[in-house]
Write a structure and sequence with these properties.
The protein has one domain (2-440). It is built from 22 helices and 2 strands. It has helices at residues 2-23, 39-61, 67-90, 94-97, 100-115, 119-129, 139-152, 156-182, 185-197, 199-204, 211-230, 234-250, 252-268, 275-295, 297-308, 311-323, 338-354, 364-367, 370-393, 395-415, 419-425, 427-465, and strands at residues 28-29, 32-33.
């Protein structure tokens, strides 16, 4: 199997280098002529992807119990993302699927010029991202793109491949999260496979957008928190701090939710309370606080909350999203007051979880979502069953995921007013929802297996005490 995957990867790399420049058609970005897709650009992108994937693969393969399975899952997920990412780049799909990629490409390139001493570029980047963590702009994505461009030159395809690596690596991380909580390989495998190949998760992690890094960082933070809940480790503590800082760099308001979820889970206790677990959790919380104090995060927290955390600003943002596109919803909803925000939750949750609905499929972009939405709608009962089981039997262990998904679901349901944006940001929740879906699916499967096993045992018992009569001769036809 590994040989087949390696062969497919080599063939795909060669095909990208040979055919992508031929298939590419000239197009313009919002900021001027975009860089042409040349053989040299494709070679650099493929080599960069191969090196980064090799590093990620080595790390994943070190997992002792399921390393081989996780490596294959990662590589197959990466191949799917490379195909989609290359197609989007070659056929000019950035504007159709995510125009933000052009913004990050432009300012990322300006940042590389700034590092080279260009003062005009430095001033332009500073105006976009601000001068501190208090900025709402995705300064982390600008620096990430600039870092990649500093290695391989201006190359959006390389950024897409790097995001594909992060998106594919999210699947093994979710596998490990599920296994850490439920100690069930079947649950973990279903969750990991869903994250690796679910269409929207593949789509958003195949472009030059920040979604892949956000989702990967969130999953990594949850995994580190689960590990630290069972055993203190300096390595996992460092991993948790780095993952949380990445979330801050790419989407600051999600950072506060994931920190609150993790600290709340540690306050509850991820394991049975005793002196050792209390001391471990206290040390972890204290070290997280010290780390972010040192990094200057706490200094800007009040400024961010005061500037972006009021309901009136949320209402303006939501109303703009609702009116700026045909897929807007709830234009008459007012979330500028506490009562208005609470009353908007039912409609917001409905759209966040289930939109686009069949009667809203009026464009090609929305029509493309129909197959995966049918799968998601069908799996929702399994999600409910999995959440019920988790709350009843794994509440302490699942506390970080339950708290975070609940907070983010409610937050997005309040200030999201656009179907397309809700569909895109649902990816931050889906990777964790799929754990619950996997739990619900395995519960139903095990219930059916148990029913068949009991039926087989009853049949064997019946045959044991009432053996079938076998007759021969004329009596058989009497």
């Amino acid at each position: 199997m590994n040989g087949v995957i390696t062969f497919l990867a080599l063939v795909l790399g060669v095909m990208i280098i040979l055919f992508a420049p031929v298939l590419w058609a000239p197009y313009l970005s919002p900021f001027g002529p975009a860089q042409a897709v040349t053989v040299d650009l494709c070679v650099r992108a493929v080599l960069f992807c191969a090196v980064m994937a090799f590093v990620a693969g080595v790390i994943i393969r070190r997992e002792k119990t399921d390393g081989r399975f996780l490596l294959r899952l990662f590589l197959l997920g990466l191949l799917a993302r490379v195909v989609i990412g290359t197609s989007i780049c070659v056929f000019n799909g950035q504007d159709f699927f995510g125009g933000d990629a052009w913004t990050y490409d432009y300012y990322g390139f300006q940042q590389t010029l700034s590092w080279a001493g260009d003062r005009a570029a430095a001033r332009e980047v500073r105006l976009f991202v601000g001068t501190s963590f208090a900025s709402a702009a995705a300064w982390g994505m600008v620096y990430l793109v600039a870092g990649i461009y500093g290695i391989v030159g201006r190359n959006m395809l390389a950024v897409q491949f790097f995001n594909g690596i992060l998106g594919a690596a999210t699947a093994p991380v979710i596998f490990l999260c599920a296994r850490e909580v439920f100690h069930n390989k079947r649950v973990a495998a279903i969750a990991g496979i869903a994250v690796a190949f679910y269409p929207s998760l593949v789509l958003w992690s195949s472009q030059g957008l920040k979604d892949a890094t956000i989702v990967f960082s969130l999953a990594l933070a949850i995994l580190a928190a689960l590990k630290l809940g069972n055993k203190f480790s300096v390595a996992y503590l460092a991993l948790l701090v780095v993952a949380l800082f990445c979330v801050l760099a790419f989407r600051f308001y999600v950072f506060y939710m994931i920190v609150a979820a993790i600290l709340g889970a540690f306050a509850m206790g991820l394991t049975k309370a005793n002196a050792q677990s209390f001391a471990r959790q206290f040390v972890v919380v204290a070290m997280i606080g010290l780390a972010f104090t040192y990094l200057g995060v706490t200094r800007y927290a009040n400024a961010q909350i005061e500037h972006y955390g009021n309901l009136e600003r949320m209402q303006r943002s939501r109303l703009d999203a609702a009116k700026s596109a045909e897929s807007g919803f709830g234009r008459d909803v007012d979330v500028s007051t506490a009562s208005g925000a609470l009353s908007s939750i039912p409609l917001g949750v409905l759209y966040l979880l289930f939109a686009p609905f069949p009667w809203q499929l009026g464009s090609l972009r929305q029509m493309l979502t129909l197959p995966e939405m049918i799968v998601w709608w069908a799996s929702f009962p399994l999600l409910v069953l999995g959440i019920w089981f988790s709350i009843r039997y794994r509440l302490r262990q699942m506390a970080p995921i339950l708290i975070f998904t609940s907070m983010l679901t409610l937050s997005y349901s309040i200030f999201q007013g656009n179907v397309g944006t809700a569909y895109r940001q649902r990816a931050q929740l889906l990777v964790f929802y799929f754990i619950f879906v996997a739990v619900g699916g395995v519960l139903l499967k095990e219930k059916r297996e148990e029913k068949r096993r009991r039926a087989a045992e009853e049949l064997r018992e019946a045959r044991r005490f009432n053996p079938p009569m076998i007759t021969t001769g004329p009596e058989q036809h009497a």
